[in-house]
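Subject: two folds for Thursday's group meeting

Dear M.,

Sorry for the delay on this. The cluster queue was jammed most of the week, so I only got both jobs back this morning. I'm pasting them in the order they finished. Each block is the input sequence followed by the predicted structure tokens. Could you check whether the formatting survives your parser before we put anything on slides? The first protein is the one we discussed after the seminar.
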Amino acid sequence: MSEQPARQRTRWWLATLLSAALVLAIGVIAFWGDLVSTALDPKVPFQTYDPPPGPDYSRSAAWYLRPQPGGALAADIFFVAPTTYDGGRNWNARLNARKANRQFQEVMAPNYVGPFVSVGRVFAPRYRQASLYSLTTLREDAREARQFAYGDVRDAFRWYIDQDNGGRPFIIVGVEQGGTLASRLLADEVARDPVLHSRMVAAYLIDTVVPADAPPISPCVQRAQAGCVAAWARAYDGDFDAPKRLLERALVWNEHGELANLSPRPALCFNPLLGAVTDQPAPARLHLGAANATGLEWGARPAFMARQVAARCEGGVLMVTRPKSSSFKQAGDWADRRKVPPFNLFYADLEADAKERLAAWRAR
């Protein structure tokens, strides 16, 4: 028997196998997000789901950050963390979820609490946050998981006001999922209590969609305005579909305390470079500084990079030019790239804005 046909058959089989492997690889790459998302689905209806045990806010273990009574700073910061729990078995995270807590300590706190530590004492509650998976789908189960998370944040805020605040001025800061929950806090707890509202310096809802036609409290329309809300959701210039996708998938609270689609309502857009809700564009020369504080020790001040971005509000979305430095590139796995970035493009701008609004509150 000739060796030539055998070699040809071998080459044919190798080519077939390589072609099949290439097709399979392309398919995995194309549908990788769907595969990961499916793996993070708890695969149990929320109505029959048994959530993890809840927090006891009288115990220090229920708080990421909770300072000792007193202190030299005259104000307080109540911080509601963004999503750090990917998902999997649970719709809502356990309070001691190891990876989620490590991401708060190493990424979220340095970058998003950091701008406010020179302004006030920080109170950051742990809560049974809805998983990242619940933010990638509009299923009713996911909405219920997010509404469930609000109960913890509300209880933490009430405990803080009753036990720790002591009549001090305070700032509310929420990021992404935390911003959505903080938005309802403003409507349910602050706006309905004139005395409490009079003590609120400002609320910053970062990477958060808030309806412009019905914000929870009055928006910040100028610098040095106290008692207002600054909210924005960000997209990069050149990513043409991102603003539309962002607003079409955005969920906001309705009058019944339920999450409903924002569309076709307009979104509120605060420009951190201008310190106001405005459509006026802000050039990069006004940018005080971005920072990548990931991995820094708590309380360490990061290096700022000024004039990195320009920003303008367009159609309810804060359109930002891409930063020049490679320090501000999204990285990590599929899940990490869908969380808030491990850097803060407006670190120095928020720090200065909060100080200015606190001075305005004192003057008022």
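Second protein, same layout:
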Amino acid sequence: MTEYQRTLEWLYALEAAKGMDFKLERVALALQRLGDPHRRFASLHIAGTNGKGSVAAILHAVLAAGGYRVGLYTSPHLVDLTERIRVGREAIGRAEVVSLTAEIRSAAAGRGIDLTFFEFLTVMGFLHFARQGVDVAVVEVGLGGRLDATNVVDPAAAVITTIGLDHMQWLGDTPAAIAAEKGGIIKPGRPVVLGRIDGDAAAVLRGLASAQGASVIEPGRDYQAGGEPELDFDGCGWCLRGLPLALRGAYQRDNAATALATLATVRDVLPVDEEAVRRGLANVRWPGRLDVVATAPLTILDGAHNLDGIEALARELPALLGGRKTHLIFAVMGDKEWRPMVERVAPLCASVVATEVLRPRGASAVAVAEAFRRSCPAIAEPDPVRAWQRVAARAQPDEAIVVAGSLFLVGALYATVLPSAWRLADGPGALHP
């Protein structure tokens, strides 16, 4: 076993032992012990039920194209933990994960600080960014916002992409309650950019912003996007036409608009020109989101893992599939409201193989297959690789394979049966775990 593998075992043992325990004090104390590295660079902080990773990736790509040295902190990873912490296109090195883990363990132990897995990685990310001399870090919230470990930053702007019913056992069971948690990233006097959010959730976020003296930038009122197939953006002092966008799907156009509104809002402190915007949008990569990895049969990997995500996927699939007979590989977390997800996607499928990831948290393949059988033929195959092999063996060149329900499933297939697709997915010179 390598030193990196031993380090991963120790880190994952934190997750198993401590689970989720939402407090900011531990992270703040650990960072203080290490010299407050998160205060050495500007930041943009992104929360939301869906779309926050895509918005983060777009911001990262455009700022990098504008000449900034940019850190990117995201979760979860698809193939290798190092994906979560990047500077430019380079993931943190495995040797550095090992050395930083030892350093942070020592610093935390010296203060009696008992960090969770996500807190530990957040401290590692900020320490890496500071030592790499980044100009700005794009920081994706892990879960919620108010008590998320990342919420120690004082960002140039906060971004909240969408509000949906997910992680309700931690965040609340109404859009308003979830908005209150995610809106906890709004900071005094710092602008907050909203994606497509309406109703009670939007009202809650406006109220939180008002209490903090933070300006609110909203779609429709302050910015809007249009155009087809290329993107037009108007708002926040920008008028841009015919923008390319490498990410597929109508929802990615919304995410791009939210990212552009953010960049326009902070242009006094992080200016980028139109050429950087065009290069960044044209070259952004975010694997596992409507990712077409083969054409015969057409093979699409999408990490949609809640009802809003599955709804978006179902809206996009007909145009991508072009009437092809479709075979679905599906796995989902058992703590999700997954039965409505099954009901939404099942009518698009000729057959389904239900599989499992992250047991015991993952839903039973047998139970998921049984739910699918109400609408289409379905079988259970708990092993994701064998599930892939069964579908790949029967799918004809003029048919389609779709993988959905969990980013963990997408990552498992990238890591095992689709390694070449993973390398291509993130672009030349990028991550190759």
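Two things I noticed about the second structure. The CA atoms of residues 124 and 396 lie 46 Å apart. The chain has a mean pLDDT of 93.

Cheers,
T.
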